[in-house]
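A note from the maintainers: we've had questions about how concatenated examples are separated. There is no special marker in the raw files; a new sequence line simply starts the next protein. For clarity in this README we add a label.
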Amino acid sequence: MDLRYPRNSAELVAMRKSGNVPELPVLVALAGPLNFNNVTLSAVAGQRYDWRPVAALDVEVFASADVPWGDLLRVLADIAAVVPKSLVLTFAEGPRVHCGEMSTVPGQDFALFDWFPMPIGPIHWPASRTLARRLLDASGDTLPAPYDHACELVVQLVAERCNNPMEMA
């Protein structure tokens, strides 16, 4: 399935092709326009996009209570699948949560997104804490847990190699 980039992606795609990255986090607007100097991508929650341009970058998603929860989770999961450096969710109503960040495996050539929702909105702490809990509850279910899957693959690989000792040499 060919997915399109979110609106306003041309600048970011051009930067990535030339080997450059933005200094500030890339913003993703799900609830109307944003008034920041950051590279800002516009998306419609519930639609699928090609998020590869945000891989290994800091990303902050801006939503509102009007964005359906399931659609928001889908956007977060799709962005996390391309493994951003970090992912933050900010609501127009105030709550803010650091969703997780990229983890690399030492000596290996891959990275994965490690979900670890933490409230970071001190002014709206109770709502941020509730939001973080909801995201944590969704991880492993609606939000895939690639770290858990990677661990399962390592255990499977070790078991296969133990059954065939010639591969270990």
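[label: protein 2]
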Amino acid sequence: MNKHIPSPCKHAARLMALLLILLAFGANVRAQVAIPGTRVQYTFPTKWHFLNSQKVDKNTTVYHYYYTDIILVSKGDTALPFLRIRVTKNYTGTLYDYVYDRYIAEPYQPLKDYTSGLGLPKTGGMGYIGAYTSLKDKRDYQFRMVYFKIQNTMVEFRLETTKATYPQMAKEFESILGSLAF
């Protein structure tokens, strides 16, 4: 047997060692994820994990992801940043109709809006930086959100955290939105 050609067992052992090294440095690995019902993909660090999905009606599903690092706000209070992707299939209205309907359902204060740039397709999208106060927990929240329509599927992509922790999460949110590939 030739000493310069690794046996299948040696090759498998090297592959396994490489896999273990990658797992050990998992915090640096980024996950590529597809938005269900679309060809749109995005990337986020492995500190984000899928929580659940919620079927709203026959055409709408909401997917929730959460940030696994606990963020200390003050006096032992913590925040849990999250990503919510709302996918509505067979939508026949316009982008503006959808954005307005969603605003009526969940009002917020728009701090900035844009129609091109970060997290949007080249045509046909709207983005917001917004804020609101939760009536449940009396906390102020801030978010980055984009809306876009791919064929007959409308998508709301929202990254959110408390107003107090938004500055430390802003770059993370921008990185995720910047990774959207249409």
